[in-house]
Amino acid sequence: MPDKGQISEKPELTVLLARPRGFCAGVVRAIEVVEAALKQDHGPVYVRHEIVHNRHVVEGLEAKGAVFVEEVADIPDSAIVIFSAHGVAKSVTDEATRRGLVSFDATCPLVSKVHQEAHKHHRAGRTVLLIGHQGHPEVFGTMGQVPEGAVILVEDSAKAEILQVPDPEKLAYITQTTLSVGDTATIIDILKRRFPSIEGPNKADICYATTNRQEAVQALAPRVDAVIVVGADNSSNSKRLVEVAQTAGCEEAFLVADAENIPWSALEGVATLGLTAGASAPEILVQGIIEALNQNFRTHVEEMNIREEVVHFSIPKALVG
């Protein structure tokens, strides 16, 4: 039996658990689309791109039989293909149709709404300014809804200040759904100042889940010494949560894929830890983080609930039954 002096008592840690956090309705729908297609047993189910940006989710669906590919060209003729929650360019859906693929669209309905706005403005003869991040799948999909050159990407305030457009009187803006609410508002203000006639959506394109999770982190950040955001490093909404935490007063904010990636050294001396998850991160990963914290701390978990979410999106009727 060890001496009392050798017994090291675990430090106490209060964990403030943000709510809402984790899966949004669009992510739930996308996963349900793949699972429903797999249950139909009509042969292999191919998914173009990660269905959502989380390897845990992707690997879980792979274990059930889904085959993930990056391009439609990688899929055999007449097979089943599902398009990811981020949406795809019109050229992708056209290629799938040309090759006789049976396609199901798991695009988040809120992303589809942005696609419809792009079509509407293009038909009205307006140049469309898309506020978003270069290289993100959602941006590729949205820009690909209309002919090349019809959409101009605006990545930040600096670009908004120097942007030149063909006709300032025929202009509209749309946004990626997973952006920082504050940063996007700043860019929109610049565009409205420079182009007073610019058209925009009646309601912000940034999705309800992104907004809610950012508001929860804003409320949590001033009360904690550090924040862990559970999410993938290619998840736009998860990375924005880290930025929001830092802007809201908690510089020690970290993006963590799972419990194996907890930055233990950064938690030394932390008395209160904020914990949240991006919209594509499953709750099982959050609980795994808490279990790991329990091994190293005497934890006291408190939930901070700023809003209840009741949104639900139905899957395609052809997959119901």
Major pleated sheet: 5 strands, parallel
Give the overall silhouette.
flat
With strands numbered from the N-terminus, the spatial order across the biggest sheet is 10-9-11-1-12
Strand percentage lies at 15-25%
Based on the coordinates given, report the CATH architecture of the largest domain: 3-Layer(aba) Sandwich
CATH class of the largest domain: Alpha Beta
Mean pLDDT: 95
State the fourth-level CATH superfamily of the largest domain. 4-hydroxy-3-methylbut-2-enyl diphosphate reductase, catalytic domain
CATH topology of the largest domain: Cobalt-precorrin-4 Transmethylase, domain 1
Rg (CA only): 22 Å
Q: Helix/strand-derived class?
A: alpha/beta
Helix content: 25-40%
Number of domains: 3
CA distance, first residue to last residue? 61 Å
Say how many strands there are: 12
Q: How many helices does DSSP assign?
A: 10
Secondary structure elements and their pairing?
Layout (H helix, E strand, L loop, with lengths): L11 E8 L5 H15 L5 E4 L6 H9 L2 E4 L10 E4 L6 H9 L3 E4 L3 H15 L3 E5 L5 H7 L7 E4 L2 H6 L8 E5 L5 H14 L13 H13 L5 E5 L5 H12 L5 E4 L15 E6 L5 H14 L1 E8 L16
Parallel strand pairs: 1-11, 1-12, 2-3, 2-4, 4-5, 6-7, 6-8, 9-10, 9-11
